[in-house]
Task: structure prediction
Amino acid sequence: MICICHTVPELPYPSDISGAFVTGTATANAQYFFADFLGAAGLIGDVIFIVCSSYFLLESRKMKIGKVVSMILNTFVISLIFMTVFLSLGYKLSTFETVRQIFPTVFQNNWFITYYIVFYMLHPLLNRIIRCLDKTALGIAAMLLFVQSFILLFVQLKAPGINKLLCFVSIYFAVAYFKFYGDRFTQSKKLNIIVLVSSIILYYAMRVAVNFIGLKIYGSEECPLFALFHINNPIILAFSLSLFNLANRKQFVCKPINFISSLSLLFYLIHRNNLFAKFIQPKWHAWFVRQFGGNLIVADMLILSLILFVCGMLLSALYVFTLGRATDFISLKIQSFCDKILKKSTPPLLNLKKTAPSEHRLFYFNFNSVNFSSVSPIIGC
Result:
């Protein structure tokens, strides 16, 4: 889904029918509508990825600095490779583009990676907070975050912007509640199928409604209502949670699938680079229109996404066995060094026996009565 999303033309697409396609605008053409529909699929993939990551990060007790270093290093190396290639091919880069390639995580060369790194660094703190809450308190916290991110931000008709991190945290708390206390939802195949099908129907109906309103009010101009289809769309969250619950019902081991999954970060970095999107993709779309006409935009996107998927996976695998080994080596060394420093600086009193998750509480929050008798040491939380 993410790969298809990144093949949507970012410039007006020359067409033989109904003028040029411009993403984010209403259209009376069914093919343009479907192309824009596919363009929003990447954000659905982002939410699914956050849901999956949250489910497993909830079991984590500490942040691995080596993993953070690995993500930053790989992002930097791949970004630098792209910059070197395009400069060697004679492309002229602006000062901002050059700085953005050198500092890709700081200037969000790939916005999702930047937010995910911060989210990953915060997850141990979030886990401590979650372990301090009982079912009622966690439910209230998850609901408040949901209202803030998926209702109040949603109805502002704007992309989340810097509030994307808040959306990550909101999804994290929602997943935590359903994982620890939502057995009725997570274990019910029938209920998850109903939610999944309903969310698909509602999402499609919402896009039809937004497109219709856009035609009536905004015409060929950009329609702000299309900002509703971002990672803070509650329908997308419901779809992602139900889909994950259905997929999580069965456990199986498949080495090829595990290997492909392990390439997801590298694939994202390789197939979606701003320089490639700016300089190469417009040339591809222009060539496709010259060869086959401008009325096959969906076929254009699907073919390009297939090429990007195959090439991206092959290059990702090649990177793993070449430069990836060097970045892994550096990351492991840094992780080992930090572990030694932490071990030396940790007082003996902190080396306590691990307690069960139910005991990891500073205060036991019960909204019927507050019980302060179960106060445990800070490090147990």
User: Anything to note?
Assistant: The first helix runs from residue 2 to 5. DSSP finds 17 helices and no strands in the chain.
